[in-house]
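Many introductory courses stop at the sequence. We go one step further.
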Amino acid sequence: MLTSLPALLLIAVWAWYGRNTPREHPSVSALELAEIGSEGLVKDTVHGGADAGISAVDPQPSVSLKRLLHLAGDRSVLLLALSYMCMNYTFYLLSNWVFLYLVQERKFSLLESGWLSAAPPLAAAIGAGIGGVATGVCCKRFGARWGFRSVPLAAMPLAGALLLLAVNATNPYLAVVALAACFGCVELTEGSFWGAGMTVGRGDTMSVCGIMNTGGNLGGIISIPIVAYLSGRHLWFAAFLIGSGFALVSAAAWLGIDVAPAEDTGAPPLLASTGSARIS
């Protein structure tokens, strides 16, 4: 109950400050409203910056089941969900099971394990911030397709290698360092996932990111019985090895995710003003 109080306070602040549309908010200037436009037009900054002009966005008041199934059938959306699911197996392995691993396998005391198990989430927080900046830099340098792919293709195999380093390290403190570095690498990819979800989805961003995040939650659901079973038999190497495998699959899936701008591919975005979908 006590830990829920900050969240309730945040909800109250948001209810007071938030608005349904930019036009309703007193902090949005006339210049910003002019840039947004009165008919749902926005600057296409992702696909070429300020000089890219204006691209239409057709926000939908509701999404039908048929539309969701149509979006879920897109290759890039499916691969985003698959990659995010595999990444989140590793994420939940690190976020949920490190404390038990340190106590059960590395023989730290409960108090010391509590302190040491805080290192991986702190590294994850730093990694998420760095990953967002790195993704932006890569997109500017390499374009959207390889810009979004670059960080996951580098970070997830490294995360898999760090998992194996952690479980095989003879020094228990080296194992903690490797686990922290691993979690940092995993969270480097968050900017790529959510940026790609918005770029692929455009006006269907909420639906596309919802499908992707459902995959992410499945990664957590899958990890619970696997790690619980293996840890109960002290088979931590197998648990970490499976995590490394999921990390590699997560990276490989990015090779099939197409987040190139429509003008580069000659195909319309997933949601154009006509409502048509691009099947990659």
